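Q: Can someone sanity-check these two? First one:
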Amino acid sequence: MELYEKIRKEWLEGDLNRDKDLVDPPEVKRYNDIPYGPVEKWNLLDLYVPKDDARSPLPVIVSIHGGGYVYGTKEIYQHYGMNLAKGGFAFINFNYRLAPESPFPAALEDCVKVMTWLYENAGKYDLDTENVFMVGDSAGAHYTSLYLCAYCNPSYADLIGIKSEKRVKIKACALNCGVYDPLKLRFEDGLDDFVTYLMGDDWREKSDKYLCAHNYLTKDYPPVYLMSGLNDYLLHQFEPMKKRIDEFGIELRSKVYGDEEPDKAYHVFHVDMNNRFQKECNDNELLFFKEHIK
């Protein structure tokens, strides 16, 4: 069994166990398995909306899930997404093509398709394309950071060959427990295997050119909520990204969670609805987004 196949099996077992006692909140309506592109298995999204929210149209959160580039589906993020939808947002939770079968920039191409779907279907679902927010964690935070580089920096969009959907107005983002500079990963954890799946054996030669978000930030980047946890194995990526965001004068709110119980502030703790810090973190990010609704 290949390493990525082993990861898919073991991580899925862990995530299903994490969520085994969770149920859909009654305050949320869900639309499942909506096609947004031509690839039947992977180009599907779910949409969660609050049932009794009086706002019309609804501001939107678009989520890019994590999973080391090789793992993950929208089903693993459904409870996290519905939890944020309760806060007064429509939440788009989508599958995307995974590495190594679909290497970079396939996931970003799928993200563009999702944004186009959002624009073209906003009227049907009462969605506000003028107030769109993005969240991503781990590899999904990396993808989110790179998508926003393409959104704000035409030279990067041209480099990777994608055209971001400018008709959707992204007002802010939350980057959670993410990778932002793969060359600075701590490879004793085996993390280089994941980037190899993403880019191929020569990924180190390509990393600064294609994968380092630090290199393509601009002053036009949307406001950022940047977070990590004291027991996050990607915590070392937090401060360098924070420094680069500050250097460009981008609006930033940042926090490392876990002062009281560091062991509970593990990697992507915010998607675990049983974690003691998830509510504080997710509430803070929703508040940050609400401050940027216009």
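And here is the second, same format, sequence then tokens:
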Amino acid sequence: MECNKCEKCCEKKGRSTHRTEEEKKELTKRLNIIEGQVRGINQMIDDDRYCDDVLIQIAAVNKALKSLGNNILESHLKSCVAYDVQMGNLDILEDVMQLIKKLQ
């Protein structure tokens, strides 16, 4: 994410993040996989699958979501947060600390 507040981002009201088409494609791909895993868990419940099997799949979904979140956090730090710090907005650091607490 190398936008650094391009016109597309600045013309939107409120906070936004401009992502490249490649980034959107990758994030959507990962979300679609996670969505499929969740549908699979739902089917496992309908099929009366053994609890251990269901729990293992739930753990896999949790891990996939955490990995996706970490990926977005890394991108956020490298782009949005870095930009705000460069512009002198150090309040963003408190926002990041609160965000990290929420993610734990």
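A (reply): Looked at the second one. The radius of gyration is 18 Å. The first helix runs from residue 7 to 10.
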